[in-house]
């Protein structure tokens, strides 16, 4: 007689055994508290399709051009060109100021 809880297979059944695994995946999240003032400031920068996490990541991006419309998705060459234009403009302004003195 089989033990309690065991199942006896008929002798004519195949001897293939199927095993099922149950996998749980947890996503680690951290909650932070912010003041009403901090949330209001985040709301000023939050775009319609963004979460607060997206806003924080965008605002804390090391790339100074990140999040600025068309330049946020452009390659390094375009950003380098923008830096060059800015440098030229500064030189022009410095030159104009020098002439006025």
Descriptive report:
- The protein has about 100 residues and is mainly α.
- Among the domains are: about 30 residues; about 35 residues.
- About 45% of the residues lie in helices and about 0% in strands.
- The mean pLDDT is about 75.
Summarize the structure.
The chain is mainly alpha-helical and 101 residues long.
Descriptive key words:
single chain, 101 residues, mainly alpha, 0% strand, elongated
Oligomer class? single chain
- SSE class: mainly alpha
What is Rg?
Answer: 31 Å
Distance between the termini: 109 Å
Extended strand count:
0
Major sheet size, sense and barrel closure: none
Mean pLDDT: 75
List unreliable stretches of 5+ residues. Answer: none
- Report the portion of residues in β strands: under 5%
- The shape, in one word, is elongated
Can you lay out the helices and strands and say which pair or pack?
Blueprint: H1 36-45, H2 52-59, H3 76-100
